[in-house]
Design goal:
The chain has helices spanning 69-81, 115-122, 124-148, 166-181, 191-197, 216-229, 274-277, 299-304, 346-367, 413-429, 458-475, and strands spanning 56-65, 87-90, 106-107, 155-163, 188-190, 204-213, 233-235, 242-244, 252-256, 259-268, 285-294, 312-315, 322-325, 331-339, 376-386, 393-396, 403-407. The chain is an alpha/beta fold and 477 residues long.
Length: 477
Amino acid sequence: MKAPATGPTGPAGPTGPAGPGSVRTTAPEAVRAGGEPCWEPPGTAPGAAPAARVSGGLTADVVVVGAGLAGLSTAYHLIERDPSLDIVVVDARGPAAGASGRGTGLLGPRVGPAIDRAARRFGPSTARRMYLASLAAVDRVVALTEELGAPCGLRAGEQIVATRGADGLAALARQARTYRALGLDVPVLSAAAIRERVDVPYHAGLLYRSAATLNPAALSGALAAACASKGVRFHGDSPLRGVRPGAGATPTELLFPSGTVRARKTVLAVNAAAGPLGLPVGTVLPLQVHAVATAPLGAEARAALGGATGTALVDSMSLAPYFRLSHDGRLVMGGGRAVHLPGLRPDRAAALHTATWTWLEERLRLLHPVLADVAVTHRWSGQIGMTLDDLPVVGRVGGHPDVWYIGGCCGHGLAMSVAHGAHVAHSLTEDPSGAHAPAAYPWHRDRAPRVPLTARPARPLLRAYLNSLDRAARRTP
């Protein structure tokens, strides 16, 4: 599981009121993600007061729905750019209560499809710019932790994407050739070079030098605290029920169970909740992915698993296990089955979660002899938003110039969510056609490809595909 992208904001009840031009909502058929991550959401800190619900009729210059990394980054960069703005952030629960507090904290350069596929799809020049943009996003998050005065468990290091199989070797070779052709510094590592950094038996890998790991819940909490200190207002326990886009001088109206918010500009940083909300942004599939964490390791185990270099290792195969060390010496491992919860019975969902955690723990113990008897203290799952073409969506909703959506980071959202928030903040405070307009990338678009999940055969076909990925991951050595 790469870091989930944004915070949870989906509806949690019956359809809200609607009118002409409204985005209609429906109640989701999902159950909450199970387990507890090895870092607590910011709202659980001693003395942390829960934000009040939206009640009555509120107004603001800008309303941001979603207190995950994308929404908090938007609010933070907005208030930095224009301190006079009256900004309201609303979440179904609270900051980092969902995806942004349930990630595994991998901070690495990735956005969109693999570099060779990106070069074929968008051309070499655009593929190169995409990769450099993801590098800049990593650097921005590292700088942001210093700017906020909150270390957030940051460990600078490297990230290796490695393989143990023939298919993985072929895929990494294609990527390596493309990186070289584009003049990008992503060297190939041999099995021996990998073992110098992390003592695990992989055949080969690609080395990404600009990477780090951190506590995603702590980063979210630090952003929320910084926003609050600058006058941003927060409301929690307020699931969004509907959106009535404004027109001309009429503000957009957002509908919540106990009240409304009217604002000139709206940012819906709701990730995979776009579907239940009926937002016309294409299909952003909600998938639950899994992770486990150990008790803090001893010195020998930490040294064997990247303690000296801060190296995280990601298997090149989809859903195969990946791991990192946390700042307090835990081994955090993600991967395994991805679960599409809508329409799934709660008992079946719970059984799939348990089976996946059990498999991850088995793979963890096989990773290195020093892990044979270590205690696994945390198991959890978190929701990511997947698109059919592996690209996020950062754009306007239904053509409305003052209503924006952010989501669909496909499990690679830790750095890019912060970048997306900064882009939207810039776009809302500058003339987007002016001389200082932000650079456009393929993910700056209004919608992703649509998958007709309401069609009768679609969900079984999706689950069959996810099952095939799971079987392939389980066959890896």
